[in-house]
């Protein structure tokens, strides 16, 4: 069964930008668009004093707001299959469940680590950590004009081929739907001398040094995706530096930044990795956070 692209809306400028992005992507991929609002009765955060204690009034407002947003998307994209849902219960659980049934979940973000609307405080991070499918974060100032030739799909690759397979797959699928170039970025740093094992030294020697070794590792990771998507142009980008710094150095010409996500469990809760966190803080383009499979 083909999954829809799901957009979360709450009436904010950020969420409407996310909905517009999701609708364009659904058209490109030829899939349906599902518009959802995660709602729970909140007497202290109601629309106005009259409805402060009226759960039915709030529920009607939520349904009307979602329906209005969906109508706008349908009018802009005639022929697009658009459905709506108001999700009750716990906000994080509702959005994570919506993501599980979707090709991707698209949400609005103001940037600088603050995800707005129904994602307040730690909720946005919890959704990113728990979602089993890609989550795309879109800023209010997102411009469709950035989705043009010359603006690339930038994806980070690290470790062994399987470590970044999910992120690479998402990047190539998106590029194929858009006719865009994929810029695959692999950053590397000089490891401590004592970290070298005899086996790794042998591999480095056979590759001709550190940088050729890293280039070979990136080429190996990309090979199956090049074969699967022969029409997608690929730029292989290997550079010395931290992954976050190198990715941000090319973000200015990106129409989408794709990063992998491996959740880190700590004493204070789950956290996304530092690279994904840095992209959400600083990249101006939409950012797709793809869980490792």
Automatic annotation (TrEMBL):
<feature type="domain" description="UspA">
    <location>
        <begin position="1"/>
        <end position="139"/>
    </location>
</feature>
<feature type="domain" description="UspA">
    <location>
        <begin position="153"/>
        <end position="291"/>
    </location>
</feature>
<dbReference type="InterPro" id="IPR014729">
    <property type="entry name" value="Rossmann-like_a/b/a_fold"/>
</dbReference>
<protein>
    <submittedName>
        <fullName>Universal stress protein</fullName>
    </submittedName>
</protein>
<dbReference type="Pfam" id="PF00582">
    <property type="entry name" value="Usp"/>
</dbReference>
<comment type="similarity">
    <text>Belongs to the universal stress protein A family.</text>
</comment>
<dbReference type="InterPro" id="IPR006016">
    <property type="entry name" value="UspA"/>
</dbReference>
<dbReference type="InterPro" id="IPR006015">
    <property type="entry name" value="Universal_stress_UspA"/>
</dbReference>
């Amino acid at each position: 069964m083909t999954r829809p692209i799901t957009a979360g809306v709450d009436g904010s400028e950020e969420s409407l930008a996310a909905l517009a992005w999701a609708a364009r992507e659904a058209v490109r991929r030829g899939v349906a668009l599902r518009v959802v609002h995660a709602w729970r009765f909140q007497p202290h955060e109601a629309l106005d004093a009259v409805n402060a204690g009226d759960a039915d009034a709030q529920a009607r407002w939520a349904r009307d707001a979602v329906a209005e947003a969906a109508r706008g998307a349908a009018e802009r994209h005639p022929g697009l299959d658009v459905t709506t849902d108001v999700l009750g219960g716990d906000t994080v659980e509702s959005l994570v469940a919506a993501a599980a049934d979707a090709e991707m979940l698209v949400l609005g973000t103001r940037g600088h680590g603050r995800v707005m609307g129904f994602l307040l405080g730690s909720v946005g991070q919890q959704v990113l950590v728990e979602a089993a499918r890609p989550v795309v974060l879109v800023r209010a100032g997102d411009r469709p004009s950035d989705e043009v030739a010359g603006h690339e799909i930038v994806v980070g690759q690290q470790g062994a081929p399987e470590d970044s397979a999910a992120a690479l797959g998402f990047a190539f699928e998106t590029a194929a739907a858009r006719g865009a170039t994929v810029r695959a970025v692999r950053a590397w740093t000089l490891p401590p001398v004592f970290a070298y094992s005899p086996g790794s030294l042998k591999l480095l020697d056979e590759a001709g040094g550190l940088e050729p070794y890293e280039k070979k590792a990136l080429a190996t990771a990309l090979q199956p995706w090049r074969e699967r998507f022969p029409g997608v142009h690929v730029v292989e980008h290997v550079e010395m530096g931290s992954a976050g710094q190198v990715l941000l150095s090319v973000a200015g010409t990106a129409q989408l930044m794709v990063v992998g996500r491996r959740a880190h469990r700590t004493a204070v809760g789950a956290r996304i990795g530092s690279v994904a966190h840095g992209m959400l803080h600083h990249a101006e383009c939409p950012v797709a956070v793809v869980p490792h499979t």
